[in-house]
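In this section we walk through a basic example: taking a raw amino acid sequence and producing a predicted 3D structure, encoded as C-alpha coordinates. The instruction is simple. Fold the sequence below.
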Amino acid sequence: MMNKVDVNIKPPSKRRLKGGLIILGISGAVIGGLYAVATPFVLPAFRKIPLPYVPATARQVDNVFKMLHSAGKTSGTLVDLGSGDGRIVIEAAKYGFQATGYELNPWLVWYSRLTARLQGLQYRAEFYRRDLWKVDLSRYDSTVVFGVPSMMPKLQDKLSEELPENGVVVACRFPFPDWTPVESIDEGVDTVWCYHKNQLGHLVSAGQSVGGCEEGES
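The resulting C-alpha coordinate sequence is shown next.
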Protein backbone atom coordinates (compact mmCIF):
# COMPACT_ATOMS: atom_id res chain seq x y z
CA MET A 1 0.00 0.00 0.00
CA MET A 2 1.46 3.32 -1.09
CA ASN A 3 1.82 6.16 1.34
CA LYS A 4 0.17 9.39 0.40
CA VAL A 5 2.45 12.36 0.10
CA ASP A 6 0.93 15.73 0.64
CA VAL A 7 2.33 18.32 -1.71
CA ASN A 8 1.68 21.86 -0.71
CA ILE A 9 2.18 24.16 -3.72
CA LYS A 10 1.99 27.77 -2.76
CA PRO A 11 1.25 30.41 -5.37
CA PRO A 12 4.01 33.03 -5.77
CA SER A 13 3.58 36.02 -3.53
CA LYS A 14 2.47 39.30 -5.06
CA ARG A 15 5.81 40.85 -4.13
CA ARG A 16 7.79 38.13 -5.92
CA LEU A 17 5.49 38.28 -8.94
CA LYS A 18 5.88 42.05 -9.14
CA GLY A 19 9.67 41.73 -8.91
CA GLY A 20 9.68 39.18 -11.72
CA LEU A 21 7.61 41.43 -13.94
CA ILE A 22 10.00 44.34 -13.30
CA ILE A 23 13.02 42.20 -14.21
CA LEU A 24 11.23 40.98 -17.33
CA GLY A 25 10.38 44.55 -18.30
CA ILE A 26 13.96 45.74 -17.79
CA SER A 27 15.31 42.81 -19.81
CA GLY A 28 12.91 43.59 -22.63
CA ALA A 29 13.90 47.24 -22.62
CA VAL A 30 17.60 46.35 -22.72
CA ILE A 31 17.11 43.90 -25.59
CA GLY A 32 14.97 46.43 -27.46
CA GLY A 33 17.57 49.13 -26.92
CA LEU A 34 20.39 46.92 -28.15
CA TYR A 35 18.34 46.01 -31.21
CA ALA A 36 17.62 49.67 -31.95
CA VAL A 37 21.28 50.61 -31.64
CA ALA A 38 22.61 47.60 -33.54
CA THR A 39 20.13 47.65 -36.41
CA PRO A 40 21.62 50.66 -38.25
CA PHE A 41 25.04 49.00 -38.09
CA VAL A 42 23.75 45.67 -39.39
CA LEU A 43 21.54 47.08 -42.16
CA PRO A 44 24.44 48.03 -44.48
CA ALA A 45 25.05 44.32 -45.06
CA PHE A 46 21.56 44.05 -46.57
CA ARG A 47 21.82 47.02 -48.90
CA LYS A 48 22.54 46.60 -52.58
CA ILE A 49 25.98 48.15 -52.12
CA PRO A 50 27.06 47.80 -48.47
CA LEU A 51 29.13 50.59 -46.92
CA PRO A 52 30.05 49.41 -43.41
CA TYR A 53 31.07 51.83 -40.70
CA VAL A 54 34.81 51.58 -40.10
CA PRO A 55 36.24 54.63 -38.29
CA ALA A 56 39.10 56.41 -40.03
CA THR A 57 42.41 56.23 -38.22
CA ALA A 58 44.33 59.37 -37.25
CA ARG A 59 46.84 58.54 -39.98
CA GLN A 60 44.12 58.26 -42.63
CA VAL A 61 42.61 61.58 -41.58
CA ASP A 62 46.03 63.20 -41.74
CA ASN A 63 46.63 61.73 -45.21
CA VAL A 64 43.32 63.11 -46.49
CA PHE A 65 44.25 66.67 -45.61
CA LYS A 66 47.81 66.31 -46.83
CA MET A 67 46.35 65.31 -50.19
CA LEU A 68 43.82 68.13 -50.25
CA HIS A 69 46.54 70.64 -49.40
CA SER A 70 48.74 69.22 -52.17
CA ALA A 71 45.82 69.67 -54.59
CA GLY A 72 45.47 73.32 -53.56
CA LYS A 73 42.29 72.75 -51.57
CA THR A 74 42.62 74.52 -48.24
CA SER A 75 39.09 75.94 -48.04
CA GLY A 76 35.83 75.95 -49.98
CA THR A 77 33.09 73.33 -49.86
CA LEU A 78 33.82 69.73 -48.90
CA VAL A 79 31.62 66.64 -48.71
CA ASP A 80 32.29 63.31 -47.03
CA LEU A 81 30.19 60.50 -48.52
CA GLY A 82 29.40 58.06 -45.74
CA SER A 83 30.65 60.37 -43.00
CA GLY A 84 30.48 57.85 -40.13
CA ASP A 85 31.22 59.52 -36.79
CA GLY A 86 31.99 62.82 -38.52
CA ARG A 87 35.73 63.04 -37.89
CA ILE A 88 36.65 64.00 -41.49
CA VAL A 89 33.96 66.69 -41.68
CA ILE A 90 34.83 68.12 -38.26
CA GLU A 91 38.54 68.18 -39.10
CA ALA A 92 37.72 69.89 -42.42
CA ALA A 93 35.76 72.56 -40.54
CA LYS A 94 38.81 73.18 -38.35
CA TYR A 95 40.89 73.69 -41.50
CA GLY A 96 38.42 76.29 -42.77
CA PHE A 97 36.22 74.27 -45.12
CA GLN A 98 32.45 74.54 -45.20
CA ALA A 99 32.00 70.81 -44.72
CA THR A 100 29.03 68.46 -45.09
CA GLY A 101 28.68 64.80 -44.21
CA TYR A 102 26.05 62.40 -45.55
CA GLU A 103 25.39 59.23 -43.59
CA LEU A 104 22.51 56.72 -43.45
CA ASN A 105 23.06 55.63 -39.84
CA PRO A 106 20.91 57.97 -37.69
CA TRP A 107 22.92 57.31 -34.52
CA LEU A 108 26.14 58.36 -36.23
CA VAL A 109 24.46 61.48 -37.66
CA TRP A 110 23.27 62.52 -34.19
CA TYR A 111 26.67 61.75 -32.67
CA SER A 112 28.43 63.79 -35.36
CA ARG A 113 26.13 66.77 -34.84
CA LEU A 114 26.67 66.64 -31.08
CA THR A 115 30.45 66.46 -31.49
CA ALA A 116 30.45 69.41 -33.87
CA ARG A 117 28.30 71.45 -31.49
CA LEU A 118 30.49 70.67 -28.49
CA GLN A 119 33.48 71.93 -30.47
CA GLY A 120 31.66 75.06 -31.64
CA LEU A 121 31.79 73.94 -35.28
CA GLN A 122 28.09 73.34 -35.95
CA TYR A 123 27.92 76.15 -38.52
CA ARG A 124 30.87 74.85 -40.53
CA ALA A 125 30.27 71.11 -40.09
CA GLU A 126 26.81 69.91 -41.10
CA PHE A 127 25.48 66.37 -41.13
CA TYR A 128 22.48 64.87 -42.90
CA ARG A 129 20.91 61.44 -42.96
CA ARG A 130 20.72 60.80 -46.69
CA ASP A 131 21.53 58.18 -49.30
CA LEU A 132 24.79 59.23 -50.96
CA TRP A 133 23.44 58.17 -54.36
CA LYS A 134 20.77 60.87 -54.09
CA VAL A 135 23.15 63.70 -53.18
CA ASP A 136 23.93 66.38 -55.79
CA LEU A 137 27.72 66.65 -55.77
CA SER A 138 27.98 69.57 -58.19
CA ARG A 139 28.27 72.19 -55.42
CA TYR A 140 31.26 70.63 -53.66
CA ASP A 141 34.85 71.57 -54.52
CA SER A 142 36.28 68.59 -52.63
CA THR A 143 34.81 65.12 -52.21
CA VAL A 144 36.11 62.54 -49.73
CA VAL A 145 35.05 58.90 -49.75
CA PHE A 146 36.04 55.86 -47.73
CA GLY A 147 34.56 53.31 -50.09
CA VAL A 148 34.45 49.58 -50.72
CA PRO A 149 35.37 47.90 -54.04
CA SER A 150 31.76 47.06 -54.94
CA MET A 151 30.65 50.70 -54.91
CA MET A 152 33.58 52.35 -56.67
CA PRO A 153 32.53 51.78 -60.33
CA LYS A 154 29.04 53.23 -59.77
CA LEU A 155 30.39 56.13 -57.71
CA GLN A 156 32.95 56.79 -60.44
CA ASP A 157 30.13 57.32 -62.93
CA LYS A 158 28.23 59.61 -60.57
CA LEU A 159 31.29 61.75 -59.84
CA SER A 160 32.21 61.97 -63.51
CA GLU A 161 28.79 63.46 -64.26
CA GLU A 162 28.36 65.74 -61.24
CA LEU A 163 31.74 67.09 -60.13
CA PRO A 164 32.44 70.76 -60.88
CA GLU A 165 35.31 71.44 -63.28
CA ASN A 166 37.66 72.37 -60.45
CA GLY A 167 36.53 69.43 -58.33
CA VAL A 168 38.93 67.16 -56.48
CA VAL A 169 38.17 63.65 -55.21
CA VAL A 170 40.12 61.98 -52.42
CA ALA A 171 39.54 58.22 -52.17
CA CYS A 172 40.64 56.30 -49.10
CA ARG A 173 41.33 52.56 -48.69
CA PHE A 174 40.28 51.71 -52.27
CA PRO A 175 40.95 53.52 -55.59
CA PHE A 176 38.57 54.03 -58.50
CA PRO A 177 38.88 51.22 -61.06
CA ASP A 178 39.20 53.25 -64.28
CA TRP A 179 40.77 56.51 -63.15
CA THR A 180 44.46 57.28 -62.86
CA PRO A 181 45.19 59.29 -59.72
CA VAL A 182 47.12 62.53 -59.93
CA GLU A 183 48.85 61.57 -56.70
CA SER A 184 48.78 58.92 -53.98
CA ILE A 185 50.45 58.60 -50.59
CA ASP A 186 51.10 55.89 -48.00
CA GLU A 187 50.34 52.18 -48.38
CA GLY A 188 47.87 49.47 -47.39
CA VAL A 189 44.66 50.63 -45.71
CA ASP A 190 46.20 54.05 -45.15
CA THR A 191 46.61 54.72 -48.88
CA VAL A 192 44.92 57.84 -50.20
CA TRP A 193 44.41 58.64 -53.91
CA CYS A 194 43.70 62.06 -55.38
CA TYR A 195 41.79 62.69 -58.62
CA HIS A 196 41.18 66.01 -60.40
CA LYS A 197 38.01 66.43 -62.45
CA ASN A 198 39.75 68.51 -65.12
CA GLN A 199 42.07 65.57 -65.79
CA LEU A 200 39.39 62.91 -65.89
CA GLY A 201 36.88 63.68 -68.61
CA HIS A 202 34.22 61.02 -69.03
CA LEU A 203 34.61 57.28 -69.05
CA VAL A 204 34.81 55.76 -72.51
CA SER A 205 33.60 52.37 -71.35
CA ALA A 206 33.99 50.07 -68.39
CA GLY A 207 37.51 48.78 -68.03
CA GLN A 208 39.09 51.53 -70.15
CA SER A 209 41.12 54.50 -68.99
CA VAL A 210 39.51 57.91 -68.80
CA GLY A 211 40.05 60.43 -71.55
CA GLY A 212 43.11 62.53 -70.78
CA CYS A 213 44.55 59.96 -68.35
CA GLU A 214 46.36 57.09 -69.98
CA GLU A 215 47.30 54.02 -67.98
CA GLY A 216 50.28 54.79 -65.77
CA GLU A 217 50.11 58.55 -66.39
CA SER A 218 50.03 60.85 -63.39
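Looking at the output, two observations stand out. Residues 27-48, 202-218 have pLDDT under 50 and may be disordered. Residues 9 and 16 are 15 Å apart (CA to CA). In the next section we compare this with other chains.
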